[in-house]
Write a structure and sequence with these properties.
- By secondary structure, the protein is α+β, with helices and mostly antiparallel strands.
- The chain contains 12 helices and 33 strands.
- Strands 1, 2, 3, 4, 5, 6 and 21 form a 7-stranded mixed β-sheet that branches. It has a 5-stranded antiparallel β-sheet with strand order 23-26-31-28-29, with no helix packed on it. A 4-stranded antiparallel β-sheet has the order 22-33-27-30, with no helix packed on it.
- The longest helix has 24 residues.
- The relative contact order is 0.13.
Amino acid sequence: MRKKIAIAQFACLFAVLLSGFRFHMEPKAGAPVQADVCIYGATAAGVIAAYTAQKMGKSVVLIEPGGHLGGMTSGGLGYTDIGNKYAITGLSRDFYRRIGKHYGKFEQWTFEPSVAKKYLQQYLDEAGIRVIYQNRIISASKSGAEIKSIVLENSIKPEARTNQTIIAKMYLDCTYEGDLMAKAGVKYAVGREANSDYNETINGVQLMKGHQLPDGIDPYKIEGKPESGLLWGVSAAKLEPNGTGDKKVQAYNYRICLTSDPNNMVPITKPEGYDPTHFELLARLIARQPERKALNDYFIWSKMPNNKTDINNRNGFSTDMIGMNYDYPDADYKKRAEIIKAHETYTKGLLYFFGHDPRVPAELREAMLKWGYPKDEYVETGNWSPQLYVREARRMIGSYVMTQANCEGKEVVKDGVGMAAYTMDSHNIQRIVINGMAKNEGNVEIGGFGPYPIAYGSLVPKEKECTNLLVPVCLSATHIAYGSIRMEPVFMVLAQSSAVAAVMAIDSKKSVQRIDIVKLQAKLKTDPLVNGKTPEILVDNEDNNVSIKGNWQPVKKGGYGPSFLATSESGQNGGTVTFTPEIAAPGNYQIYVYFPKVAKPASEIKLSVQAGSETKNISVLEKDIIVEGQTSGEWYHLGKFNLPKGNASSVNILAEGASGAVAADAVLFVPVAER
């Protein structure tokens, strides 16, 4: 009996303590919230930033203007834009490892929205962080160049009496819009710079062939009659000269999660506000290319686990709502809500059109009707993503501006605190009339370069403007450079770097512009998971501790990191590539080898692992290397090995006698956490 009473008393005490904790995180109006670090925006970047600062011993307040956790990472973008896995480090990479563990793999870059949200929430739970949802910034108070406080209003029912004040030493803006940055008086850009502004070649107006409408599609309501007016979605704007700057913004859309599982499906019905005239141009496109009868001809229809999708824009008329978002970056909250709702109506209407409009070929209609909204996703918001894909809004004009030259490796910064590797990418920006035809303008997709460093200076404002703000999402970059950097995994990397920098600025009592960059870089390298444990060891083919024997040729694209080595298709005279790690902490390590895709690969790859004085020979079948998602290679698990301190261990990739080409790229040694 006494035991039961004691348990009941403990339960009551725990409830009181929990109630007090909640009160601290969600105070009554008029009671300012104070913290070391204020993070505005619970995107995936915001989550990683909050976790990092909290694990480094600082108090954190994490604010989300809406009700959704994780931004685009949990908002439908499950087909992760990677570019090159080598560029994804620290907690960002750890996130994709956690996703991998969920699906029974080492890493996973394709996933369901709810799974992404689950593991982002896991970071917050581990750090004891609760999000203040449905609160948005209305003002920022500064003393000189230092933010002293910000004021929030309730996003659902804004009233002055319920406003909240946040007081912090450091602030991070992790939103896609950059509202905190703007309220703090930091200069920013919207739209496209002219090529001449930063000595670029693919910024500004660009009329290219990607995601383009074919020739001959009439843009007028009555074909052949300009006096009848333009079809919905076609602008009367004139085509400016190539490279001309403007204030127009690349198209937004929704990354759509559907399911083909009948037991988990909500049918796609006609949305309120549906207007079939919005799809007249699409009907003309379909009629012009009758040979295209698959959904993949009109959408990037990427399959996700458990019969779900991540659907993205494809070709001339798709999920991108071109030209309808120009006001969004600087709009007030009411106007933004209208733009978001218009995008939702358009996208749901597009799906309904494909399933029901008689102008759509029967094959396409039948294919669309096999899909519906998943019952187990976005259950709080009617099975529809609450996150519009805001690809680009404001971009800070900071201490350093990343440009096309940085992407292409023509300028290499020394204060790098993260990497990017994706193609310089812009979605279409306007749909106009050219030579009497409807055409899209603004699409750019130019790559061919390896991973490159992102400057710390691009994460901080100019010192005269603000001394205690970091901006890892709306960072300082031109439109075209931002198109390469703006990927969710990279935002997470930069958010971790920003949070570490914020902690260093607090501890050293310096502005964010004056912290020790070398120490920041060292901290990110030696403690990538912010837990003080031995980091994994990567040995890349370009490292000094790799020895090469035989005829191996460097390949500059498609590997892990800047390059990989490969033999000829015959495999003759291939020899051996030996990867030798420097083991600082002896113990058990899981060893993985990265295999990129090669033309005419060998059906079997022979390796040997030297673990101190012991040797193990391993054969890897090419058919067992399964590459998924937007990537060109995959890690293959060799096993767990006990490795002594020093350089007495190695992994050898053998090519002699192989039936085809063999690749040697990178080897990863992951320390095993002993219980």
